[in-house]
Amino acid sequence: MKTKQAGGILALLGVAAGAFAFWKYKTMPQEDKDKLHAKINDAGKKIKEGVTDVEETLTEKYNRVKEMASKKADRVA
For residue 28, what is the DSSP state? Predict the structure, then answer.
């Protein structure tokens, strides 16, 4: 029973934090909103670049492993 109560309290705190953040954003001056949007867009670009780098690295490693497996299969055959 305690875990359900703890989960409910955490959910309530999350809703309260979300409501506070929404209120804070709505009362924020437009200049600060623009700065916040710029920060969020910048963070999104950095995340996208990081994901692209990881994807490229994994693709390169996959291709190397595939080539090595193909060479070994040719040697065995």
Answer: S
